[in-house]
Amino acid sequence: MRDCSDAGARAGHLDEAVKTLASGQLVVLPTDTVYGIAADAFTPKAVSALLRAKGRGRQMPPPVLIGDVRTLDGLATEIPQAVRDLVTEFWPGPLTVILTAQPSLHWDLGETHGTVALRMPDDEVALALLRRTGPLAVSSANKTGQDSATTCADAAEQLGRAVKVYLDGGATPGPVPSTIVDATGAQMRIVREGALTAEELGSIAPELLPENQPAEVGDGPDEGDEAVGDEADGDGQGTPGEHEADQPSTDEPGTDEPGTEDTDTEDTDTEDTDTEETDTTGGATQP
């Protein structure tokens, strides 16, 4: 694992993470909720490796973390003014927003139904990486059905050699994931209440206050980011409101996919990790 607590050494660790992601392999990084597992959002084989590492399939694609609020318009369209008000107030932070994806984007996150879940995390290591790599597909760094990782060691124990580089930023504030808002319908709705409450969101966008929400709204998916992004805390895509909820994977392990090589040589905590385990119980959170 690469210790990013020392700002002087951090630049070299980020260099290695940038190269790893560019090669289609996976990186674990801290966020402001839980640890996330990241892949280049524009490399389909890398996204597939991410899903396979977690033990789930394309029906619950990962959310996308960004390092600058201005990236919002490059990835999404039909953005309501209320969403702009929310991200102005709560980004960077534990808010994931599901929007209509730009149709011109050349990516394959899974069965997104034309949507994308976006979040800007409030973590200096994550933001430093995102500002160098651009948008990353990020899910919570755990096996499907297992607890979200709030330390890098927790993530390494679960994901082992499926991840090439582990960026250790210390313990994260988790395990509470990001709050997910679906803005693809006629009315915005909260599909998962997490670190931000409906009252906090409603202070900026009154339609999100509990008394103004549709009666059918309940607990949203758990992905994590958030989400990383969810948030590395529980976030995702698919049918609006179902982004990044952990589901059993139907993908079979491959030998030529990214993310299957040996972990970073500095990571001594994952030598004995069983990387062939695939959890099929479902129900974890996301960044």
UniProtKB/TrEMBL annotation:
Reactions the enzyme catalyzes: L-threonine + hydrogencarbonate + ATP = L-threonylcarbamoyladenylate + diphosphate + H2O
Compositional bias per record (Acidic residues), positions renumbered to this chain: 219-234, 253-279
SUPFAM superfamilies, alphabetized: YrdC/RibB
Broad enzyme group: transferase
Any one Gene Ontology BP term: regulation of translational fidelity
Location(s), subcellular: Cytoplasm
Predominant subcellular localization, coarse grouping: cytoplasm
Disordered, as annotated region: 205-287
Domain YrdC-like as annotated: residue spans: 11-196
PANTHER family: SUA5, THREONYLCARBAMOYL-AMP SYNTHASE
Family: Belongs to the SUA5 family.
Name of the protein described by the UniProt record: L-threonylcarbamoyladenylate synthase
Species name: Ruania alkalisoli
